[in-house]
Design goal:
alpha/beta; nine-stranded mixed sheet; globular; AB_hydrolase_fold; Rossmann fold; 2 domains
């Protein structure tokens, strides 16, 4: 966060090679109380966190990872198991010198961070967004149908990001990794996790249904469960403010400390309670034509840089995109503030 309260927009891109596997790391913000490590899902890129990351940087540096075979990162010669992806994330944490970072995973990324947290008792905080795979849907046809149902409720921006990411990833690599994701038994790892866990689902997320998230709450030793109204599988994008607020509140008051009945029961709750669409910035967030052109140019530049393997150029493109989105968000914030002042008057 800058000194004027505006989210940081400068993105630094580096990469790590560990045992022949490459991970690309996009870093946002300056050192703070706690670093965040963000891990996206199968086939997609760290751009899925483009709206969440700037909202976390006030608390600490944000490191968003692109895993082998995804987002233009070099394909390994074979499909990787979830545990191998987790080992690579652990190597990135060690290389960056992070002390007990907050692990944030989305979709398949929840499997990766859960696997790592189960084997690293020093990790004290974990965020699982749209967790997979529900044991009752451990078949590709069922999972695909659920994904399509959820996609119907996703914003256009996520649909564009998904198409672009899957084209870059390639169908062949996606289909090689998919069976590993489908058979990974995350439910068997959850009881071994000592970290305080925050589990978040969107109201319309058929990939992570309510019953499955509630079962996770029973399996995790220390957990909070939240459902965000109006959201789908990629809840951290279209409802970034709400997800960020949940993350920061979770760090401030971890479950298991105090006498909250919420901590004792791990009940699935709606956030914010009693409000259907509380995110005023989300309601007003509508980039201008100029913002959209700037963002499009940045994305084209990023795509070219990815093809060239130019990390510095990727960082400049991501920074340009973040600046365009920050301008749009700032206008939305000001509109919300004026509306609030008018209603008080």
């Amino acid at each position: 966060m800058t000194e004027h309260g505006r989210p940081a927009t400068t993105v630094r891109v580096t990469r790590l090679v560990h045992r022949g596997l490459t991970v690309r790391i996009s870093t946002l913000g300056t050192p703070g109380d706690r670093a965040f490590v963000l891990v996206p899902g199968i086939g997609v890129s760290s751009d899925y966190f483009e709206r969440l990351a700037p909202r976390l940087d006030a608390h600490g540096t944000v490191h968003a990872l692109d895993l082998p075979g995804f987002a233009g990162v070099r394909h390994p010669g074979r499909a990787l198991e979830i545990r191998e992806y987790a080992d690579l994330v652990g190597a990135a944490i060690d290389e960056l010198g992070l002390d007990d970072p907050v692990l944030v995973g989305h979709s398949m990324g929840t499997q990766v961070v859960a696997d790592l947290a189960a084997r690293r008792p020093g990790i004290s905080a974990l965020v699982l967004i749209g967790p997979v795979v529900d044991p009752s849907a451990r078949s590709v046809p069922v999972a695909a149908l659920r994904f399509l149902r959820s996609s119907w409720h996703e914003p256009r921006r996520i649909q564009v990001l998904a198409v672009r990411a899957y084209l870059v990833c390639g169908v062949r690599w996606f289909l090689r990794v998919l069976p590993r994701m489908m058979r990974y038994p995350i439910e068997a790892r959850l009881p071994a996790i000592r970290a305080s866990a925050l589990v978040i689902r969107g109201e319309h997320d058929a990939v992570a249904p309510r019953a499955w998230v509630e079962e996770m709450g029973r399996l995790l030793p220390r957990a909070r469960l939240w459902e965000i109204p109006g959201a789908a599988h990629s809840v951290m994008h279209d409802h970034a403010d709400e997800v960020a607020r949940l993350c920061l509140a979770h760090l401030e008051h971890p479950p298991g400390e105090g006498s909250s009945t919420e901590d004792a029961s791990a009940e699935l709750r709606r956030f914010p309670e009693g409000e259907e669409h509380p995110d005023e910035e989300h309601a007003d967030f509508a980039p201008t034509v100029s913002d959209s052109i700037r963002a499009l140019r940045a994305q084209v530049a990023e795509g070219v840089a990815i093809l060239r393997g130019d990390d510095a150029a990727i960082g400049r493109a991501k920074t340009a995109h973040a600046e365009a989105m920050a301008d749009a968000a700032e206008r939305a914030r000001r509109r919300g503030a004026r509306r609030a002042a008018s209603s008080r008057g």
